[in-house]
Amino acid sequence: MKTNPKLASTVSLLRFGEVLSRGAFLFFILFSSLSITAQDANPLLDSLLQVLSNSSDSPQKIDVINDIAWELKFDAPDQARDYLAQAIELSKKINYKKGAGQAYNNLGVVETIHENKSKAIANYEKALVIRQELDDKKGVASIYNNIGNLQSELDAYEDALINFQYSLQIREELKDSQKIANVHYNLSVTNEAWGNYSEALDHIFRCLEISQQINDQTNIINAYNVIGNIKTELEIFEEAKENYEKAMAIALEMEDDWEIATAHNNIGNNKDDFGEQSLDKDNYTDAFQKFKEAIEAHEAALTLRQKMEYADEVSASYNNIGLVYKNIGSYHLKLKEESAAQNALDKALDFLQKSLRIRTDLEDKQGIMEVYNGIGDVKRRQKKYTEAIQYAHKYLAIADTIDDDKFKQNAYKDLSKAYEATGEYQLALDHQKKYDDLRYDRLDESRTRFNSRREAIFGDRKKQLEIDKKQLEIEKQEAAIQKASLQKKALIGGATGLLLVLGLLYNRFILKNRANKTLEEKNSIIAAEQERSESLLLNILPKSTADELKEKGSTAAKKHESVSVLFTDFKSFTQVTESMEAEALVALLDHCYRGFDEIVQRHNIEKIKTIGDAYMCAGGLPESNQTHAVDVVKAALEMQAFMNKVNAEREALDQAILSMRTGIHSGPVVAGIVGSKKFAYDIWGDTVNIAARMESSSEIGRVNISDATYQLVKDSFECNYRGKISAKNKGEIDMYFVI
């Protein structure tokens, strides 16, 4: 697993930037004339202790105690905790709420530094209650931000996003542009970690916009780096590289070695990812070149980090260089170059061990776990399965200790592979089951949190209420007219009165007709709005899911045992689009996707989503059926035929064409709703990953299917067996082209 210290370090920086309010420091300046120099061990601490010894119980004394604890937070956490306990006790004694709030906040910081995240959150929440009572909006916003960061680190992404939104709301009220940009940054990083890439991009672009307005160069660099990270996650490597290079350009202009090293690190990771993708596609020349460029970038980052003497960043560079050499080893293994492969894998181990020594000295459990993961991967490539199993158990033990479910999953998967290689099939099966169980548990857990979506789904309910209100006003007007008519009839007698009454009745008739017509128009508006809401809802959700959402306000994730997932992708899309105007590009994609939508709808297939130039759909859900594989293959063939027609028309006009690959795999998935505002129906599971690999392993104009799909459609279609084809992270898979 590659290390991106920029991400972790920046989040940490933004978090601690929220808690550096040091009220007692001003008190100290007022009451002390001591000179503070860099050569002293800790003159501030010594001076604070001196002030404390001469202080009586007072708010100022509590502020001094808080500042003493602050100075001890890194090197003497137990002493810091003792002082903060004193500050809390004394604050309660003299009813100094501000001091107690600061003490609980500082306790949160101490526990955060020393990786006690749950305790940190508990203390922040106590500080939050006090600051809310004091109407300290700035302090409340800071704590929401800190709690959000910790929840994000604990993978409680939805809770984290809620707290960041609370912080953002207050920061916007305070019009604090710098902090607004920071919260958008944190919202982006958390959405990225959760896989909500669209929302992540929305927030990071907002962060970038604000940072450019206030000319915050460091935050602009941070934003470009995160955009690059998101593009990398989406495997849009060229665009990722462009953003990393923008960050690099600003860092070079600022002559900021830290940021330059970070840009080198990110570019190195980008090149390594690009190389892995090329290797998976058997593009060996390109893969090796990218790996070489990755090594050069990481070595440049390492040189700067060694110069700055940042041990944790040095260890990260060692780790990343080791992982690139591991991939170079895989490259040589694919070419059957055993000697070169072993040489590269030995280099990988050398760098990983260097990283491990530093992280062990730093007692960095997370970092140690990452290195063990990398060493285990290398040992497995060297076919040293016993050692691979040992390292997998080592990092599983750490994952259990720090409750990191992501690495637990990785460990179960690695152990399953290693045990299978040694012939211990029962152990392999046991760990595969643990992997599957944990994966689905995590999906179920995150899905159960979606219990507050009614406002997002029924946002137009306010519009409905306004219409009802206007309808009520019309009825009141009609009643008033009727009352006025009766009063007038009582005052008029005789023939004149009768004529007047008749006139009034006629007038009432006209008014009532008008009122009825108005009411009829309003009812039509209501019906149209309801129909529009229903149509919009069904455009993004299956009908059964939409019905459940309207009835209950939430939906439960559902496991489907057998579906067929289809992916399409346009080859060299970036190069094609470079020659097109934006309007023409959007029009072309819209035309293609409308054609695909019509095809999948006709074959009773559920469109899942589009990601750039990729289109994803699935058959056999939300309602199960026995024909999903045949339906999806038919749709795939029609999609290719549709694209052939589109390309023929474009060629006749001498326009660029879009060549498409298609892949299909069948198996189990979990389906449910994701998102808070831009919610969507989505599916997860290994079936989705394998379907994506079917597409990337396909050829232009062909429909590539897995053996699982072939077994379901072999009686309906003629297929050509391609043999076992290597797929990224999936090993070799039997594949077929549909004729």
What would you say this structure looks like, in words?
The chain is α+β, with helices and mostly antiparallel strands. Among the domains are: 1-134, Alpha Horseshoe (Serine Threonine Protein Phosphatase 5, Tetratricopeptide repeat), CATH 1.25.40; 159-233, Serine Threonine Protein Phosphatase 5, Tetratricopeptide repeat (Alpha Horseshoe); 454-540; 554-738, Alpha-Beta Plaits (2-Layer Sandwich), CATH 3.30.70. It is 73% helix and 9% strand. It has 30 helices and eight strands. It has helices at 5-17, 23-31, 43-53, 59-72, 77-94, 97-113, 117-133, 137-153, 157-174, 177-194, 197-213, 217-233, 237-254, 257-280, 284-308, 311-334, 338-361, 365-381, 385-402, 405-421, 425-448, 454-457, 461-491, 494-540, 543-552, 573-578, 582-602, 628-652, 686-696, 707-713; strands spanning 558-570, 606-611, 614-619, 660-674, 680-684, 703-706, 719-727, 731-738. Strands 1, 2, 3, 4, 5, 6, 7 and 8 form an eight-stranded mixed sheet that branches. β4 (660-674) and β5 form a beta hairpin. The longest helix has 47 residues, at 494-540. 40% of the residues are buried.
Task: Summarize it.
Helix content is 73%, strand content 9%. With 739 residues, it is of the alpha+beta class. Strand 7 and strand 8 form a beta hairpin.
Explain the layout of strands and helices.
Blueprint: H1 5-17, H2 23-31, H3 43-53, H4 59-72, H5 77-94, H6 97-113, H7 117-133, H8 137-153, H9 157-174, H10 177-194, H11 197-213, H12 217-233, H13 237-254, H14 257-280, H15 284-308, H16 311-334, H17 338-361, H18 365-381, H19 385-402, H20 405-421, H21 425-448, H22 454-457, H23 461-491, H24 494-540, H25 543-552, E1 558-570, H26 573-578, H27 582-602, E2 606-611, E3 614-619, H28 628-652, E4 660-674, E5 680-684, H29 686-696, E6 703-706, H30 707-713, E7 719-727, E8 731-738
Parallel strand pairs: 4-6
Antiparallel strand pairs: 1-3, 1-4, 2-3, 4-5, 6-8, 7-8
Helix pairs in contact: 1-8, 2-4, 3-4, 4-5, 4-6, 5-6, 6-7, 7-8, 8-9, 8-10, 9-10, 10-11, 10-12, 11-12, 12-13, 12-14, 13-14, 14-15, 14-16, 15-16, 16-17, 16-18, 17-18, 18-19, 18-20, 19-20, 20-21, 23-24, 27-28
